[in-house]
């Protein structure tokens, strides 16, 4: 189990869809693992060590990406907020190369959707793990070999808690929240919203049917992260996706 959040990330698998029989079951990352009976102080020491090791590997990922002129995003949300649908539209309409690292506990569903949308994808299955870490992304980058000068999106495991703790080497963190989840999430999960460079408010086409106040969501997001921008879109209908594409392009231009 991961000593930081208690999830089991020791069975992570990286699958490249071009080579579906090579599931890479090897366990190459070297997180310290907690054991039954660890005292509280020991657990805290391990947490610091895990995050320090992760930060070191994230730094290596960041250098690897910078050398290739690749802009990397860490895309996070609850399950079902619409990350993959947003990526399908982005791949089709952005007008520059996109490659994707998909994180889910199980299945190749999302990597298959991304490949059908026309982009390169690898799937990382975390087993019992609830987040991606920098070591998993390093392994995935080796398999994916994303196009130089392009956009790399890491779609994290659906979870508003642990993914906020782990730097993957990305340039920007994006949180997607959908109107079906409730407008109280920024104050309930402040670490995620505090870490975000952008909050995408998705499924705005459903606003007439749900009890969700976009102004409250934006105000609460800014209460934990005063500089954060909240961008309402509908990935399903395409409403306001132009603003999302403009934001993506700007992340490269200001590098
Ligand atoms: Mg997904």
The N- and C-terminal alpha carbons lie at a distance of 37 Å
CATH fold descriptor: Rossmann fold
Instruction: State the order of secondary-structure elements, H for helix, E for strand.
Output: EHEHEHEHEEHHEHEH
Number of helices: 8
CATH class reads Alpha Beta
The strand line-up of the biggest sheet is: 1-4-3-5-2-6-7-8
- The CATH architecture would be 3-Layer(aba) Sandwich
Task: Tell me the number of structural domains.
Answer: 1
Question: What is the rounded Rg?
Answer: 18 Å
State the low-pLDDT regions, or none.
Answer: 19-36
Number of extended strands: 8
The distinct ligands, each listed once, are:
magnesium ion
Write a brief caption for the model.
This protein has 255 residues and is α/β, with parallel strands linked by helices. 36% of the residues lie in helices and 18% in strands. An eight-stranded mixed beta sheet has the order 1-4-3-5-2-6-7-8, sandwiched between helices.
What attributes characterize this protein structure?
Rossmann fold, 255 residues, eight-stranded mixed β-sheet, binds magnesium ion, alpha/beta
Describe the protein.
By secondary structure, this protein is an alpha/beta fold. The protein has a single domain (13-18, 40-250), classed as P-loop containing nucleotide triphosphate hydrolases (Rossmann fold, 3-Layer(aba) Sandwich). The chain has eight helices and eight strands. The chain has helices at residues 40-67, 83-93, 109-117, 134-144, 185-188, 190-195, 214-224, 241-253; strands at residues 13-16, 71-77, 98-104, 120-125, 151-155, 172-178, 198-202, 229-232. The protein has an eight-stranded mixed beta sheet with strand order 1-4-3-5-2-6-7-8, sandwiched between helices. Strand 7, helix 7 and strand 8 form a beta-alpha-beta unit. The longest helix has 28 residues, at 40-67. The chain is globular and about 45 Å long. Residues 19-36 have low confidence and may be disordered. The structure holds magnesium ion. Residues 83-84, 110, 155 line the site of magnesium ion.
